[in-house]
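Dock 4'-deoxy-4'-aminopyridoxal-5'-phosphate; give full complex structure.
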Amino acid sequence: MTDRNDELFDRAREVIPGGVNSPVRAYGSVGGTPRFLASARGATVTDAAGREFVDLVASWGPALLGHAHPEIVEVVQAAAARGLSFGAPTGAEVELASLIAERVAVGDAKPIEKVRLVSTGTEATMTAIRLARGVTGRDLLIKFAGHYHGHSDGLLAAAGSGVATLALPGSAGVPAPIAAQTLVLPYNDLDAVREAFALHGDRIAAVIVEAAAANMGVVAPLPGYNAALADIAHDNGALLIIDEVLTGFRVHPAGYWGLQAEAGEAFTPDLFTFGKVVGGGMPLAALGGRADVMDALAPLGPVYQAGTLSGNPLSVAAGIATLRLATPEVYARVDAAAAVVADALSSALTAEGVVHAVPRAGSLFGVAFLPDAPHDYATALTQDAWRYPPFFHAMLDAGVSLPPSVYEAWFLTAAHDEAALDRIVSALPAAARAAASA
Ligand code: PMP
């Protein structure tokens, strides 16, 4: 039976490559017609055919407080009435930059002195890398297999997210000399990092790492790993860039760095990147870190970066409102909701005898069809990924919208109330049966 989603998908494919403006939206690995969404509120999304789903995508992370939170919508409307874009600095940008710097603090540790606002996570990581190269005068970059840092040229080698979902080695269109500037190492393997520095130490500008990997499924760093990366980089005159685009302000008021610092694992990254939650659902991202590094950016320093829509007033208003509303109680609610769903997911799969793990990093979790949570990309890729499409579609049929790839995290929000959680929990047994018989 075709419905409005099918009609839209047919038309979309005539005018938009693959019918989507970002690849994983295409249901490429799960099959079927993507839901074309018409609206979203709280924990639910409504598709073009008028069907409502409890949502576990949360716009891929930003909707920490739930969709269309009334106070955020109100400040965005008020900002729109004052002007959509100025191309000049605003007081609100100063407020948001200060909020970001103030929040990323635990005890005496306050690693962010200066912040620059950009529009996407891709821009934030791209700029952080240029900055690291500019201040060190070195070219090479270390990234980890399965980590996704956006789609700039040098970061697509062995990347997670859609690159993993589509089983691509990287991307066409990246010149070999540019790809050669990125050293891709296995995640959670400090010996590999020490070896790379032993071989190329004086040419490595930076190590970039997701604070906790969540684009190859969820793969948390082993205890001490992030702190050791900071030590190794600093011992060799390189910078550590912690990519918190996905984890920042989502797993803890001070991001995954804050979660680790609070647990006694303190370390000092030179640069942080943020996106998603920091813009509350509007296009906004940021990089921040040590003043002496950040001040190498133009107009003070020689590293160029710019943006017509950087610090857009609507996005900044949404970001400020989101950070102000994201109180410790919000994180406690999201943590509790995540625990309910993660436990129910595991119980349902266990009841059907499906080999699985539910890897977690703070409130982020996902499913991996493996006996144990994977610790790196090579292991994540060995799972029975073919069990996910029938599982996904059984959940969708029951009115629960999951990320359309096994290599993505599930996102809870503070708007997932008991009714929303009940709908998810009661949908899981049938989905587990579908996964078992796949
Ligand atoms: N870094 C990480 C860790 C991400 O998860 C993402 C997006 N999923 C990005 C960078 C890129 O952000 P954007 O899609 O806003 O360009």
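Observed: The mean pLDDT is 97.
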